């Protein structure tokens, strides 16, 4: 079981800090590792009920309820059979000279760089973030830096909270459920949402749009205005 994220750990501590009793029904569904960790958690009493081998009495193996449908056509490369064959040979380490030459023809050389508007694929999130930052800075217009305002809820010394927030800001968005500490904003630049903001309005994870205007609090004539995405 992976470690909980810092944000989730903080929320669980806030919700369960007053918990005095844990009652677990059907403890046969609790893994051995977690089961032996239950009693020390929070110094609370634990009551478990149910039969330890109950899961074995639920029925036949689930696999017997499935049917197999074998796919014989590679849909993604169905219009390019030679490329599909080369990929299969590469996965099996049996590439022919023709396969190698076909893939080499797809290589990008310094004199054949793709257009800046093309989608770029990277091996790591760090490389993708670095490319995105550079691409935004090279776009025309003024840049604005939006820094997240974080707070730590729950009881505890303020010094510990400040220390936690300082460590939290050093984490990458992949460790904070897609939430970045700093975002560079520039009008007419395309951005992709990494979390669900409002599913009813289409603001979901993966949605792409251009930033049309930035709300900096108030306009020059003190009239508030909204932030519009298009």
Brief summary:
The chain is 26% helix and 10% strand.
Description:
The chain is of the alpha+beta class and 230 residues long. The chain is 26% helix and 10% strand. The chain is built from 6 helices and 6 strands. The strands form 3 sheets. It has a two-stranded parallel ribbon. A two-stranded antiparallel sheet has the order 3-4. Helix 2 links the parallel strand 1 and strand 2 (45-49). Helix 3 (81-91) packs across helix 4.
List the main descriptive attributes of the protein structure presented here.
disordered C terminus, two-stranded parallel sheet, two-stranded antiparallel ribbon, ATP-dependent DNA helicase, 26% helix, P-loop_NTPase, PIF1_helicase, 230 residues, alpha+beta, 6 helices
Q: Care to count the β-strands?
A: 6
Average pLDDT score: 76
The quaternary state of the protein chains shown equals: single chain
Strand order of the largest sheet: 1-2
- Report the end-to-end length measured between terminal Cα atoms: 41 Å
Strand content: 5-15%
Largest sheet: 2 strands, parallel
Helix-strand makeup class: alpha+beta
**Shape annotation:** flat
Count of DSSP H/I helices: 6
- The ordered H/E elements are HEHEHHHEHEEE
- pLDDT under 50 segments (min length 5)? 224-230
Gyration radius (Cα, Å) is: 27 Å
Give helix % range. Answer: 25-40%
């Amino acid at each position: 079981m992976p470690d909980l994220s810092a944000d989730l750990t903080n929320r669980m501590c806030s919700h369960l800090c007053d918990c005095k009793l844990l009652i677990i029904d059907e403890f046969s569904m609790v893994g051995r590792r977690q089961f032996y960790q239950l009693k020390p958690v929070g110094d609370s009493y634990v009551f478990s009920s149910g039969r330890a081998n109950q899961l074995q009495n639920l029925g036949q193996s689930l696999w017997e309820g499935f049917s197999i449908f074998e796919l014989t056509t590679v849909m993604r490369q169905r219009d390019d059979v030679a490329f599909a064959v080369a990929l299969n040979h590469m996965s099996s380490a049996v590439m022919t000279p023709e396969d190698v030459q076909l893939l080499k023809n797809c290589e990008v050389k310094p004199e054949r760089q793709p257009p800046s508007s093309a989608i770029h694929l990277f091996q790591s999130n760090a490389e993708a973030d670095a490319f995105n930052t550079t691409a935004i800075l090279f776009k025309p217009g003024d840049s604005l830096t939006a820094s997240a305002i974080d707070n730590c809820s729950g009881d505890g010394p303020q010094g510990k909270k400040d220390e936690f927030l300082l460590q939290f800001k050093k984490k990458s968005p992949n460790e904070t459920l897609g939430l970045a500490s700093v975002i560079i904003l520039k009008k007419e630049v395309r951005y992709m949402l990494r979390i669900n903001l409002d599913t009813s309005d289409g603001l979901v994870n993966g949605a792409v749009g251009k930033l049309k205007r930035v709300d900096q609090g108030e306009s020059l004539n003190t009239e508030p205005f909204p932030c519009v995405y298009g």
